[in-house]
Amino acid sequence: MTHSAVSVIAAKRDGGALSDDQIGWVVDAFTRGAVADEQMSALAMAIVLRGMNRRELARWTAAMIASGQRMDFTDLPRPTVDKHSTGGVGDKITLPLAPLVAACGAAVPQLSGRGLGHTGGTLDKLESIPGWQADLTAARMREILTDPGIGAVVCAAGADLVPADRRLYALRDVTGTVESVPLIASSIMSKKIAEGTGALVLDVKVGSGAFMKNRADATDLATAMVELGVDAGVRTVALLTGMDTPLGRTAGNALEVAEAVQVLAGGGPPDVVELTVALAREMVEQAGIRDTDPADVLAGGRAMDHWRAMIAAQGGDPAAPLPVARHTETVVAHEGGVLTRLDALAVGRAAWLLGAGRTRQGESVQFAAGVEMHCKPGDPVASGQPLFTVHTDTEAAVPAAVAALRDGYEIGAQPPESVPLIIDRISG
Ligand code: URA
């Protein structure tokens, strides 16, 4: 049957379900350049407004995967397992998690991205380590994963991994079509399935600093992604975790690396440790590794050994000092009481204004920029006590960042209701 972009767009615009044939054709034609960017943008908007059913979503994801090469690690001597987070503020969990799970006996092949807007990207964080390189050949990736003293790799996806997503995401970013469960689920899962991992743990964030602002939407996204993974033969489970307040006490690339190293050394903020261990337990279970508790491995220091080896394997010097910002300024409390709210979006926005994030794909970031949080919700606060330290190389950015932070917290008389960090678990 012959297809046209206009007929496919019109079918979705009018609320119809696209046939397998229509989906296969439109994704392939877009990848080849035979469907124009403006046509794909119109189709993306129709999908945002009309959605996709489970069959359409599975077919769309398969077509995205088929636009490029699929990696295969089934011959590695150890089970492969990866984690994906839908993105949040201060989310440095991959940094301690990947070496921890490798130290438990799995291989962790993580193809990661750079940040856009208020959420940071794992590659940006790791690139703040002097010498560290995000680009690896497939052969080198395999060597690192096979080495029992390393076993974890975090690197940039090659241009041939789901090229349709690379182009489509760039369009979605500038056409108001990012926030859609089927488009997010297919974008993330096509890359994770093509990456060749045998098992996957998803950290789906819920709250002001996340894509999904409420639990119902996050549950829909997690369910769609788990179904896609399971249907593609990847053992997949999702945790729904809170993102109303930032994770840990830092947001910003080098600041977050330093905090991750504290966790690997047996310290670090309790919420970062809790989520790292919870996700590691899920990953180890999905990988089929029994009788190893990641909490014991972390306490025994073996995750730190894998971290150092993992950084060095990608050219980084794990002992080198991290970049330091040219300007810092401390924001103090104007009143005493208890910190009742610290908004993730406000902190993410402040870090971005300070230079830690980018506005457009391809821009550079300031490695040393970001926000240090001296208090978290529930902490007592005295008038005049430091609440934040902002770090930046651009002094002129400080007033706007401080204004964003001033709007993002509240001090009250009563402690806030305590909310669990791990809200739910969704399995296939
Ligand atoms: N991350 C992705 O890779 N894709 C999306 O659509 C959203 C977040």
Short description:
The protein has 428 residues and is of the alpha/beta class.
Provide a descriptive summary of the structure in words.
This protein is an alpha/beta fold and 428 residues long. The protein has 3 domains: 5-51, Transferase, Pyrimidine Nucleoside Phosphorylase, Chain C (Transferase, Pyrimidine Nucleoside Phosphorylase, Chain A, domain 3, Up-down Bundle), CATH 1.20.970; 81-320, Pyrimidine Nucleoside Phosphorylase, Chain A, domain 2; 327-412, Alpha-Beta Complex (Aldehyde Oxidoreductase, domain 3), CATH 3.90.1170. It is 43% helix and 16% strand. It has helices spanning 5-13, 20-32, 37-50, 54-65, 94-103, 122-127, 138-146, 163-174, 181-194, 215-231, 253-264, 270-286, 294-299, 302-313, 344-354, 398-406; strands at 81-85, 108-112, 152-156, 199-206, 235-242, 250-251, 327-332, 337-342, 370-373, 380-381, 386-392, 409-412, 422-427. β4 (199-206), α10 (215-231) and β5 form a beta-alpha-beta unit. The longest helix is centred in the middle third of the chain and has 17 residues, at 215-231. It starts with a helix and ends with a strand. The model has no long low-confidence stretch (mean pLDDT 96). It binds uracil. Uracil (URA) is lined by residues 169, 178, 183-184, 187-188. It comes from Nocardia vermiculata.
Biggest sheet: strands side by side, in what order?
A: 1-4-5-13
Output the CATH class name of the largest domain.
Alpha Beta
**Biggest sheet layout:** 4 strands, mixed
Tally of DSSP β-strands:
13
Approximately what portion of the residues adopt beta-strand conformation? Answer: 15-25%
- Helix amount: 40-55%
Multimeric state of these chains? single chain
Q: Please state the structural category.
A: alpha/beta
Give the H and E element order: HHHHEHEHHEHHEHEEHHHHEEHEEEHEE
